[in-house]
Design a protein that fits this description.
Radius of gyration: 25 Å
Order of helices and strands: HHHHHHHHHHHHHHHHHHHHHHHHHHHHH
Largest sheet: none
Number of strands: 0
Shape: elongated
Distance between the termini: 59 Å
Number of helices: 29
Length: 493
């Protein structure tokens, strides 16, 4: 019998014992992302690590990540939160516990003395969520000894809608317990807890931008500054989708994060979401990179629908030669200008321009090579797996995820259309002919969107070479998306 007891204890420690149908479904989602990356070549550098991160995030009891939330699918990792909730000298614990039902308070006591109830955690989560939807936990006296952020205090002192009340309660619980929830007694933080801080602390996206800057030639944009307008027009998708998301019930912060998908810029989408709506990081990152991968499928039908064959055949005047002085001054001037105008995205713009400056000066080739190769590769691995670990079943499998995927497609379509339509207008008023197809490259998928413009144009006229012309709005789109994100962060952050 003793052997059976130990065997039962071993079984209870396995992930199989704690797995739920939702987690098994998410394993399938992770495998699907890996398949799309490997077999279909859809953004493999990021979808593959994201898919793998989703796999490990949905296997219970693997101790790879503790994320500071009490939303966990296995009882063992709830122990620290429950222990804090039962504290006799923590004002917030006492205040929170008083709002729970008598039945749940008894369950909390039973849980701490070892009477495990397989339904306990789901019951606790349900009751807390209902409670958070029903009232605010905020009380000045209870929270005066806690370091509550100014954002949370500002939210707490306003008249709250149901959505804002729920967000306030989430913030309070996360800020008060923060890192003290995990690790539990005798436990340590997992590897991916620390890796995820590269996203949470806004480290990885700027480093990705450093690599992009070191890889990208800004010369076509400098040679034809008018293409800045095409990059700006392609941001139409961001603001159209923001309005649509709010209409569907998302908060302004969530809607802004979803709208950034329209820029087809994964790092900026992650950077913005980590600041405004971190609970949506998984679905937004997956949508952003999935649609980036689908640029060759999504854009051509829209480009053909909005242009005539004659417009698609337009051959543009060759670009002028850009001097070395211009190439060096451009990232410096753009960096200074953008940082003054939109300081909220200083890190993204500064690193993008630093990478390009290192590329152009010629005397730090070793640094430029490291930025676009070794560093870029390492950060891509960490960024992908960190985002993947946010795709837990309890936060990913819901109606909001489906809405985000649909809104992402809408955002991307409007972004493409905005660039093409402005290209048509510019062709009418400009003395130099402009092929409207290059406007589709105003989204930030560098250089994929520019290659699509080249392919569509050349299918109509084999002698038409649009790639370098399209790189202008393509680079402008990267800057434009960052600026749009900065405006949204300044207004909503």
């Amino acid at each position: 019998m003793e052997i059976l007891r130990y065997l039962g204890e071993i079984i209870r420690q396995t992930g199989f014992f704690h797995s739920t149908p939702d987690q098994l479904l998410m394993l399938g989602v992770g495998i699907l992302l890996i398949y799309l990356a490997v077999a279909r070549d859809f953004e493999p550098l990021l979808l593959m690590p994201i898919g793998f991160g989703a796999l490990i995030a949905n296997i219970p009891n693997n101790n790879l990540m503790y994320d500071g939330y009490f939303y966990r699918s296995d009882l063992k990792n709830s122990a620290a939160f429950v222990s804090r909730l039962n504290s006799q000298n923590d004002p917030f614990s006492i205040y929170l516990k008083e709002h729970l039902s008598a039945d749940m308070q008894k369950k909390l006591t039973d849980y701490t003395v070892g009477k495990l109830d397989s339904k306990f955690e789901s019951d606790l989560l349900t009751e807390l969520n209902n409670l958070m939807n029903g009232q605010s936990f905020f009380n000045e006296d209870v929270f005066k000894n806690y370091r509550i952020s100014s954002e949370t205090l500002k939210l707490a002192r306003t008249n709250l809608t149901e959505e804002k009340r729920f967000r306030l309660n989430r913030l309070l619980i996360e800020e008060v317990y923060s890192d003290e929830i995990y690790p539990g007694p005798g436990e340590t933080y997992g590897l991916f807890y620390y890796i995820y801080h590269g996203v949470k602390l806004e480290i990885f996206p700027p480093l990705i931008f450093l690599g992009i800057g070191a890889m990208t030639d800004f010369g076509p944009l400098i040679a034809n500054p008018k293409t800045f307008l095409l990059g700006a027009a392609a941001q139409l998708g961001i603001f159209i989708t923001l309005i649509g998301a709010m209409f569907l019930g998302f908060t302004p912060q969530e809607a802004a994060s979803i709208g950034i998908i329209g820029g087809a810029d994964g790092p900026t989408a992650i950077y913005t979401t980590a600041k405004l709506a971190p609970h949506l990081l998984g679905p937004i990152a997956v949508a952003a990179y999935s649609y980036m991968a689908l640029v060759p499928l999504i854009q051509p039908p829209i480009m053909r629908l909005l242009t005539t064959r004659r417009e698609r055949m337009i051959v543009m005047t060759p670009l002028r030669e850009v001097s070395r002085r211009e190439r060096i001054l451009f990232p410096i001037v753009v960096c200074i200008t953008c940082l003054y105008i939109v300081p909220a995205v200083s890190a993204l713009v500064a690193m993008l321009m630093l990478g390009n400056l290192m590329r152009e000066v010629g005397c730090v080739e070793r640094l430029a090579d490291t930025a676009r190769n070794q560093l870029m590769n390492v950060v891509t691995i960490f960024l992908g797996t960190a985002v993947g670990t946010t795709m837990r079943a309890e936060t990913f499998l819901n109606l909001a995820t489906i809405k985000i995927l649909i809104l992402g497609a809408i955002a991307f379509s409007f972004a493409t259309a905005g660039g093409v339509l402005l290209g048509k207008f510019m062709n009418l008023v400009s003395k130099d002919r402009i092929n409207p197809l290059i406007g589709a490259a105003g989204v930030s998928a560098v250089p994929m969107a520019a290659r699509v413009a080249q392919k569509v144009g050349q299918s109509e006229n084999p002698q038409n070479f649009l790639l370098m012309h399209a790189m202008g709005p393509n680079v402008a789109g990267v800057i434009g998306t960052a600026v749009a994100a900065g405006v949204l962060l300044a207004l909503l952050g």
